[in-house]
Prior knowledge:
This protein is mainly alpha-helical.
Amino acid sequence: EWxxxxxxxxxxxxxxxxxxxxxxxxxxxGAHWLVLEDVPLPLPKNRWEADSGxxxxxxxxxxxxxxxELPLKSPFMPFWSKEMSTKALACFPKGISxxxxxxxxxxxxxxxxxxQPLCWISGDPNPTNWGIRNTGKLVLFDWERxxxxxxxxxxAITMPGLGTSDHSLESLIAKRYLDLWRGADLEVPFTxxxxxxxxxxxxxxxxxxxxxxxxxxxxxxxIRAFVEQFPAKLVQFQSK
Length: 240
């Protein structure tokens, strides 16, 4: 994150990716210090689903780094290991864990697509990592997971929770995102059906990663909600 703000913030801003202004950056005794603009307003909840401003910034990030050699220092490289699956499955009662394990493994087998280093990704553009300046301009912060991957990772993480049971939100995000490619008179890299499926894959992967990293916090409301809803998400994914 320090490297990105210090070395790449001008590039990102010129590419149409709004991030907080950097006021000061320094390294001292192994610690990295950043002084950033205070973005005063949160993204309101009525803009948490398929927001056009959010998608435009992510499109600008992805398009302007698409298959280009633009090195990041210590980039986040998303992956899905066997250990992650094991830790995530341990969050569920044993009976449910056994039932969903083959479903989870099937998604893992086809998840290689979303780990292709097609472009830069934010890595964590969840709705709480967006702010709004007093001018009304949207800003994306928390760049510590900036790295390389498939656009579907960013698009999936913009969705609160696990998405929708009928995949309607995922489809809407895919359509609006690809409309930006079409509007710029660019070759569209995926069909809407392909991107919708990859968004669903990425949402399952991000949930597995979240559960694996927070498996000791099973009493939290967020973890309990994921544990309750995730088996149905896996079944819905297989049915499409």
